Automatic annotation (TrEMBL):
Residues in the signal sequence: none
Name of the gene this protein is made from: LOC100279953
Domain of life: Eukaryota
Region (Disordered): 44-70
Entry protein name: AB hydrolase-1 domain-containing protein
Length: 264
């Protein structure tokens, strides 16, 4: 039987390519590969994979005001419910004509993976920064949703010269014990794993209800297919959730140099 979510992926990929984006896989270090949807001017004749020593096409071209490289760079970082292209499928079409869009898959989402044992948001931010550096992005505006918002905060804290501004929705700077407990109580979930890594239709419906601005009705078949496709690498993702929680006594709120827009 056809999985509707799996069948949607080629269609979504085609739409993104028609909009001028291309899938790029790059090895950031041995054992760590990140997949990013990026503007097509980064892709050379060799295809959509950048080797560790291969310069990007963007660096080979002359920059001018009319070139795509002169547009503002915007990075969209997804949450825990889905990989990059699925999370931002309703947004890239209206943004791509005005901005250079970069949509990475965080580690253990989509085609991104690592052999590193580090499961912290700091590590995810380092990987995003490394991928952007390889693509020749020196300055960008970052949009983060939920888990991606925490990664965005870490990216802005660690790379103030890279991140010009932040737009974060449904996220916090640090997920402390107290914040996690209050959030789970408010959402009616027993734990972050129960909320963010559902294995039942009821759990998935609860997750999507809090992650969507406008509630939408879907048949149960849709939810079943979504569970089969979107929640892979369960062991590693559980470890990512464990890596999120910070002790109240250890939590430090940085002073960000960038302008920020926050939406809860």
């Amino acid at each position: 039987m056809v999985n509707f979510i799996e069948a949607q992926k080629p269609v979504l990929s085609r739409l993104m390519k028609m909009a001028g984006l291309r899938p790029i896989e790059m090895e950031l270090e041995p054992g760590t590969t990140m997949h990013v949807w990026a503007p097509k001017h980064h892709v050379g004749k060799k295809g959509t994979t950048i080797s560790p020593l291969e310069p990007t096409a963007a660096k080979k071209k002359k920059k001018n005001r009319k070139s795509p490289e002169s547009r503002p760079n915007v990075v969209l970082i997804h949450g825990f419910a889905a990989e990059g292209n699925v999370t931002w499928q309703f947004n890239f079409g209206v943004l791509v004509s005005r901005y250079n869009l970069y949509i990475p898959d965080l580690m253990f989402f989509g085609k991104s993976s690592t052999s590193s044992a580090d499961r912290s948001p700091d590590f995810q931010a380092e990987c995003v920064a490394g991928a952007l550096a390889r693509l020749g992005v020196a300055r960008c505006d970052v949009v983060g949703f939920s888990y991606g918002g925490m990664v965005a905060f870490k990216l802005a804290e660690a790379r103030p010269g890279l991140v010009r501004s932040l737009c974060v929705s449904g996220s916090v700077v640090a997920m402390t014990d107290a914040v996690n407990r209050e959030t789970m109580e408010r959402l009616g979930a027993g734990s972050s794993a129960e909320l963010l890594m559902p294995d039942t239709l009821k759990g998935l419906k609860a997750l999507l209800s809090v992650s969507m601005y406008r509630k939408m009705w879907f048949p149960d078949r849709f939810y079943k297919d979504y569970l089969k496709v979107m929640f892979t690498n369960r062991k590693e993702r559980m470890e990512l959730l464990q890596g999120l929680i910070t002790s109240n006594t250890d939590a430090k709120i940085p002073v960000f140099q960038q302008g920020s827009m926050l939406d809860d």
